[in-house]
């Protein structure tokens, strides 16, 4: 059997166990069927889970939906393993670790040979910014797993809560803002309750939404923001936490004083319409925008009346009738 590159991650393990796993992976390469590397994120082939971690249920859910990752319970004395998982006993011994990985390699290879082809998932035509904005606007109280490539975060739109295994770095934010496709899965209630109690995993949601609004919409207004409408601010963005340029202060001041169209905002701030749309998108992502579409609605309704009035005037003139 040919050796394959495989990825392994940990979910909620104590730091001592995780460091041991990382060390073992460095030295067991010649003794395993496949080539294993450590990977940060749920997009791994194997997840070594702490059964007492709130994130373990999320890993099980993903495994049930896509057959990956293969979940393994790392159990200490007195712990119960996760249902339906393989077990690795702590303290972890290299011989047992190697045997486990080889067993997984052989079993997954068998499954892959026998599995029927799976149709490719349809690609959503919406931008990442539109997808996340629509998720937040729905204000669902359910927990949603939001996956971007190798990164997964968990969002509760109603409470504007975000949970992640580690704080999002600037590199993470850049990856999210440049992404083209997201996968969103609604999680079960049990996983939601577990994660809600995991307060140390709660992160800054607005930092993610703001960055995606600024950089992830390619200078096009979000779908839910009407073209030609005027926009104003509900309240001032928290520039102490949110990445910003100096001219964002000027735009925020303009939108705080009164409603502006994109063109008015660009002209008054002496910046481009592209930058004005990006700023409005970022504010909308963080629920800071008020929309005044009234200015564009009457003009659209009045146009047909003027056209028909002109036609009637022409008919009267041709018949020699007075207007």
Describe the structure concisely.
With 323 residues, the chain is of the alpha/beta class. It has helices at residues 15-27, 56-66, 94-114, 128-138, 170-178, 189-196, 205-215, 246-257, 262-269, 273-285, 297-319; strands spanning 5-11, 35-38, 46-49, 70-75, 86-89, 144-148, 151-156, 161-163, 183-186, 202-203, 230-233, 289-292.
Describe the 3D structure:
By secondary structure, the protein is α/β, with parallel strands linked by helices. The chain is built from 11 helices and 12 strands. Strands 2-1-3-4-5 form a 5-stranded parallel beta sheet. Helix 2 links the parallel strand 3 and strand 4. The radius of gyration is 27 Å and the shape is elongated.
List keywords for this structure.
16% strand; 5-stranded antiparallel sheet; 12 strands; alpha/beta; 5-stranded parallel sheet; 323 residues
Question: Could you say which overall geometry the principal axes of the C-alpha atoms support?
Answer: elongated
The structure class reads: alpha/beta
Oligomer: single chain
Task: Summarize the helix and strand pattern as letters.
Answer: EHEEHEEHHEEEHEHEHEHHHEH
How many H/I helical runs? 11
- Which strand-content bin applies to the residues? 15-25%
Amino- and carboxy-terminal Cα gap: 91 Å
Q: For the report, how would you describe the main beta sheet?
A: 5 strands, parallel
Estimated helix fraction: 40-55%
Topology, number of strands? 12
Strand order of the largest sheet: 2-1-3-4-5
Give the low-confidence spans: 110-124, 297-304
């Amino acid at each position: 059997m040919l050796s394959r590159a495989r990825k392994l991650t940990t979910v909620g393990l104590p730091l001592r166990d995780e460091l041991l796993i990382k060390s073992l992976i460095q030295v067991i390469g010649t003794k395993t069927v496949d080539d294993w590397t450590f990977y940060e994120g749920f997009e791994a082939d194997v997840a070594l889970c702490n059964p007492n971690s709130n994130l373990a249920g999320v890993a099980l859910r993903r495994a049930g939906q896509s057959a990956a990752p293969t979940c393994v319970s790392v159990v200490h004395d007195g712990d119960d393993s996760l249902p339906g998982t393989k077990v690795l006993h702590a303290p972890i011994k290299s011989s047992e670790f190697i045997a486990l990985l080889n067993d997984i390699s052989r079993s997954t290879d068998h499954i892959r040979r026998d599995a029927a082809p799976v149709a490719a998932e349809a690609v959503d035509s919406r931008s990442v910014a539109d997808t996340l904005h629509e998720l937040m606007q729905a204000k669902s109280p359910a927990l949603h797993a939001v996956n971007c490539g190798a990164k997964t975060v968990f969002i509760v739109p109603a409470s504007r809560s975000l949970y992640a295994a580690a704080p999002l770095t600037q590199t993470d934010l850049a990856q999210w803002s440049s992404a083209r496709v997201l996968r969103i899965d609604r999680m079960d209630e049990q996983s939601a309750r577990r994660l809600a109690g995991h307060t140390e995993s709660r992160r800054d949601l607005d930092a993610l939404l703001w960055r995606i609004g600024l950089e992830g919409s390619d200078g096009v207004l979000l779908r839910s923001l009407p073209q030609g409408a005027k926009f104003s601010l509900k309240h001032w963005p928290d520039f102490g936490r949110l990445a910003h340029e100096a001219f964002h202060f000027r735009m925020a001041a303009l939108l705080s004083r009164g409603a502006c169209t994109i063109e008015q905002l660009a002209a008054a701030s002496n910046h481009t319409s592209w930058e004005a749309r990006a700023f409005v998108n970022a504010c909308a992502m963080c629920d800071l925008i008020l929309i005044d579409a009234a200015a564009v609605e009457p003009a659209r309704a009045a146009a047909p009346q003027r056209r028909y009035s002109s036609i009637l005037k022409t008919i009267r003139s041709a018949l020699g009738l007075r207007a």
